[in-house]
Amino acid sequence: MQVLQSIEALKAFRENLGTQSVGLVPTMGALHKGHVSLIHQSCAQNTHTIVSIFVNPTQFGANEDLSTYPRTLEQDLALCESLGVSGVFVPSIEEMYPSADELMILPPKMMGYVLEGFDRPTHFGGVLQVVLKLFMLVRPQKAYFGKKDAQQVLIVQKMLRDWHLPLEVVACPIVRDDDGLAFSSRNVYLNPQERAQALCIPKTIQCIESAISQGVYEVQELHKLVHKTLDSSKSLVPMHIFYAYFCDYNLAPIEKICKGESLFLLAVRVGKTRLLDNLWC
């Protein structure tokens, strides 16, 4: 496995791979079992897998956790090597953003400024900025993203369609810990009480999934179950619900679940940590 710290090193590495298939797994490091599942799928579907580890500053807002975001590079590199990754791209901020006057990318109005984009209006512009750079540098046939960040997946897929980019975004299933909480690098922020409180999130997802499997498709009825489940959870620590939203794959609100075309998106702050979860209905 090669560790690539510069764009020039990445370009030379990619050139040497020629026409062999390449999968890209973009990450911000602090790798967990969710990332492992992405890497496994990429390695199974491609001759080579390149993982990027870059805590991207442009997707963080002014009061967000850029400076404290978990960084575990040594462990991440060892994990990537054990999984059969061909190369890991670990650039500095200066390498990725050498200009003080960077070209900016705006997300689509109807998808990029709602839900996560409502509370974090610069977030998806920063995501698209770094993702496009990685796509152009790595030139993968496939790129692997986790379904936990559903809004991100859908917006990146729209960028591919709108700009006719020659690759496929593979959306991979959510991976959960033994207690049901979706893996996230930010889970390390949770203390034991907060972790216990956060379990109301997967409990709500399970409740909605069960109701839909029993034929409850009306969003009005499903919303009642959402709030009943969240309200009944024991309040161990401060908790705030940002949104509990049913929509289609364009993030437009829906009144009824259409199987294979609907989403339930949930964002909750537990203590000081913002946690996301969802159900692809």
Automatic annotation (TrEMBL):
This is Pantothenate synthetase. GO terms for molecular function: ATP binding; pantoate-beta-alanine ligase activity. It is found in: Cytoplasm. Beta-alanine binds at Q59. Keywords: ATP-binding, Cytoplasm, Ligase, Nucleotide-binding, Pantothenate biosynthesis. ATP binds at residues 28-35, 146-149, 175, 183-186. Belongs to the pantothenate synthetase family. Its EC number is 6.3.2.1. Its main location: cytoplasm. Pathway: Cofactor biosynthesis; (R)-pantothenate biosynthesis; (R)-pantothenate from (R)-pantoate and beta-alanine: step 1/1. The reaction proceeds by a bi uni uni bi ping pong mechanism. It is an enzyme of class 6 (ligase). The active site is at H35 (proton donor). GO terms for cellular component: cytosol. Homodimer. It holds the Pfam family Pantoate_ligase. (R)-pantoate binds at Q59, Q152.
